[in-house]
Amino acid sequence: MNPLVLVTSNGEQIPNQIVKDILAANGNSADKTSSVSFGSCTYVTYFCDLKTKYYENTIALLPYEGNICELPSEMLKATEMLIVYFDANNKSFKQQLPELCDLVANNDISLGVLLTSKLFDDVNQGLTYGGIKESCKFQFDVIELHNDEEDNGEPTGYKEVIEVLKNNIWSNVKVPGTDDDIPDGDLEEQLEGFENLLTSIQNFKRISNGMERDQMLDEAEKLAELFIKMMNED
């Protein structure tokens, strides 16, 4: 089974439309689907093809309308990323974040992503970036979808969602074995760099439980910078 990305909504945007917007931003069509079964229920997933300099793979986006906490445990355990849409003018959504964070942690979901049309700058008007991050710490990225214009060269909107998908290390990552356009020496160097990165991530996951909070955050930041640098190399 392809890595599963669960897409749900606590706002005006419906999960099916979010999935289609993600596919469109990635240049994929919405007609490549497959069914997966968990328990007595069957769900439709949409294939999303990802390709970077170092790997290419296909993930499965599963739109779901309903309370995700009531989903079968085997389905949540199979989920590698959780994407949740929310309305920033709904201040009560912040109260749901601890439960979502627990769901991510308890099911070993690699990353959560919170999507909204546009955040507020004033806490009196609605939810702000700082207020959301204070509640979900590092378990969720927060992305505004108000536009797809680049901000200081960085992708925003659904383009930023695609970058998050590409920067994640999926369980079915495949490093291209050969490339006639890449000299043997360069290919060997790239593969070695990728393998070293995977080793660093595995080591971090193994030893992070024994670290102090500040040390863990510092090491995680260094690891993230290394990964982004590799993904953006020409």
Automatic annotation (TrEMBL):
Gene3D superfamilies: 3.40.50.11960
Name of protein: Alpha-and gamma-adaptin-binding protein p34
Organism expressing this protein natively: Ceratitis capitata (Mediterranean fruit fly)
